[in-house]
Amino acid sequence: MSANLDGLFDQFKYWYEKRHDYARDWKARTGGRIAATMCTYTPEEILIAAGMLPVRVLGAHEPQNVTEPHIFGMFCPFCRDSLAQGLLGRYDYADGVTLTQSCIQYRQTFTSWREHVPTVKWDYYLPMPNEVQSRFARTLQYAEVKKFRSFMEGVIDKPITDDDLNRALSVVNENRRLLRELFEYRKETNPRVNGVEALYASLTAQFVDKAEHNAELKRVLSELPKRKQDRPEGVRFMTIGSENDDVSFMAMVESVGSTIVIDDQCSGTRYFWNEARLQDDPIAAIADRYCERPACPTKDYPLHTRYDHVLKLAKDYNARAAVFLQQKFCDPHEGDYPDLKEHLEQNGIPTLFLEFDITNPLGPFRIRIEAFLETLSEEELF
Amino acid sequence: MTAGEKKEYWRWEESCWTDDSKNWRDAKIITAGIDVGSVSSQAVVCVDGELYGYNSMRTGNSSPDSATNALKGVLEKSGMTLTDITYVIGTGYGRVNVPFAHKAITEIACHARGANYMGGNSIRTILDMGGQDCKAIHCDEKGKVTNFLMNDKCAAGTGRGMEVIADLMQIPIAELGARSFDVDEEPQAVSSTCVVFAKSEALGLLKAGYSKNKVIAAYCQAMAERVVSLIERIGVEDKFFITGGIAKNTGVVRRIEKLLGTKAAETKYDSQIAGALGAALFGYTLMQKQGAAAAKAAA
């Protein structure tokens, strides 16, 4: 298995596996409210400034039969799985739900959530511009983040001050900085942090209290210089796609002769890669940050900025090859795939395409991963 | 057949063969490849990098037993023992469960290498039509995989589907290909190659007056269309070669050729042994290189 046996990342793993228990416990001990968030374009700073815990809705990778009346079967598995979790009452601790505009499939998940998850007391749709490259985008985004602040003030029935926002910016920026520090270790030859561990860290940041997450990141970062790596590196892989929290898939990949060294996914780097640039006006700092972050395909036109960004990540982290983890029916990512594949391959990064569903067949995926590894090496066989 | 005895129309012929013109006792390096697939298992033995013998049989409910039984056939026929074999490579779904294997390699790499041996080094595109999956593979002149695609989770349009149709039509599986051409006019493909749906659709066609041969033709056509859509995604570069059990079904093969506009390369070998053969050949190359390295170190 790819995981180290020293237990350094066990807290992140525990949080990931017991995320609902964590949220309920947080609510009980702090008396705070919880906002279920969809899409990593959600400006969490506003929710944190309002004293809330933002909890990103994730799937469970289990067969389910509850979403058919609410969402098309040909919408992406992540959207369907996320909706299923709401309908099954797994997020019954969430007081409200919010979505920032990304793709139309996610929006259907959000719409069904707010209509059919009875525990939801408030909902907010933030219509962030998709064309973030437009000269009007920042102005619109500023106005929308400001409106979101006003809405949340109504929910908590008290003002959210600039000081509240600056404190939230500070703790979220620190989280981003610490995750970047952690990911720096993945640049090493035979890195001290493997892909599964990095995934646990970046995913839990999306639903654990940032101050607690920061404290744990600092503890891990203080231990890492002493850590001895006890596994062979194998081929260095990058993963590319939308959301991926399929830990068993990642562990399988790292158990057959590879290390996942970097990603371009919203469950990973796209969530935390850039900090907000602090400005006099915290709303402007928040609004700009989300326009400037590494783009999801839904917000990457007319220029395709992510192609060079992905290639740079691959080069910076010395990835030998890239694996596309395509959520079935995810049109934005599938639309980017042919050109991004070509861009990477023309620059010496071979690619493999895997299509993800709510549950994934590890056996056939393992054959594909191993066969891909064989195309990259096994020269001694010829 | 007595009353009440059920005939197994799906049952394809198991085979065991050794090349009696070769004396394995003279060989420097004997290697074996064991392909434990979802439906069939094969053992291939190579002597000095040349095919010596093989055994092809149905996979049982235990991968280790299937591997052992497959190899046992060749050993018994040749008088060889396991200790005579220098190196064994496991491949197929059960590749990591071959108890006596020194190494496991995916069937994708092994089929490409096997096809390179069986069809020559001009083979560039391989279609492996197995029991429960289908793979389109590109390789170079050495038989090294350069690109590949597999069908998704569903086993539709694979060997198992053909077995179900054989049972349903009560026609021995080996006769399906020839029967599919014995029709008054070529029918449209059945709309689904899903084993379950195709079965009910086939029954519907029979009730609608289709002859058995015409139903088989419709299923062969559907299977061909499905694999052609897979292989077209990867691109067909000549020469083109088909491995796996379905390669023996002319009804599917001729229809694939028609859809692709190219002929599949012919071979004198059994198409089902390609994976195990590739594994045995990899074993030979590894042993050669290890021997060369040892000789160099000793010098």
Describe this entry's structure for a reader.
The complex is a heterodimer of chains A (382) and B (299). Chain A is an alpha/beta fold and 382 residues long. Chain A has helices at 10-17, 19-30, 44-49, 77-87, 104-116, 137-156, 162-184, 195-204, 210-223, 247-255, 269-272, 282-292, 305-316, 331-346, 362-376, and strands spanning 33-38, 52-56, 96-100, 122-126, 235-241, 258-264, 321-327, 351-356. In chain A, the strands form two sheets. A four-stranded parallel beta sheet of chain A has the order 2-1-3-4, sandwiched between helices. In chain A, α10 links the parallel β5 (235-241) and β6. The longest helix of chain A has 23 residues, at 162-184. The mean pLDDT of chain A is 95. Chain B has a six-stranded mixed beta sheet. Chain B has a four-stranded mixed beta sheet with strand order 9-8-7-10, with helices on both faces. The model of chain B has no long low-confidence stretch (mean pLDDT 91). Chain B starts with 14 loop residues before the first strand and ends with a helix. The chains are: A alpha/beta (382), B alpha/beta (299). Chain A binds chain B through residues 355, 357, 361, 363-364, 367-368, 370-371, 374-375, 378, 380-382, and chain B through 93, 105-109, 113, 133, 142-148, 150, 152-153, 282, 285-286, 289.
Write the layout of secondary structure elements.
The complex is a heterodimer of chains A (382) and B (299).
Chain A: H1 10-17, H2 19-30, E1 33-38, H3 44-49, E2 52-56, H4 77-87, E3 96-100, H5 104-116, E4 122-126, H6 137-156, H7 162-184, H8 195-204, H9 210-223, E5 235-241, H10 247-255, E6 258-264, H11 269-272, H12 282-292, H13 305-316, E7 321-327, H14 331-346, E8 351-356, H15 362-376
Parallel strand pairs in A: 1-2, 1-3, 3-4, 5-6, 5-7, 7-8
Chain B: E1 15-18, E2 30-36, E3 40-47, E4 50-58, H1 63-78, E5 87-91, E6 103-104, H2 107-119, E7 125-129, E8 134-139, E9 145-150, H3 159-169, H4 176-179, H5 195-207, H6 212-234, E10 240-243, H7 250-260, H8 274-298
Parallel strand pairs in B: 2-5, 5-6, 7-10
Antiparallel strand pairs in B: 1-4, 2-3, 3-4, 7-8, 8-9
Helix pairs in contact in B: 2-8, 3-5, 5-6, 6-7
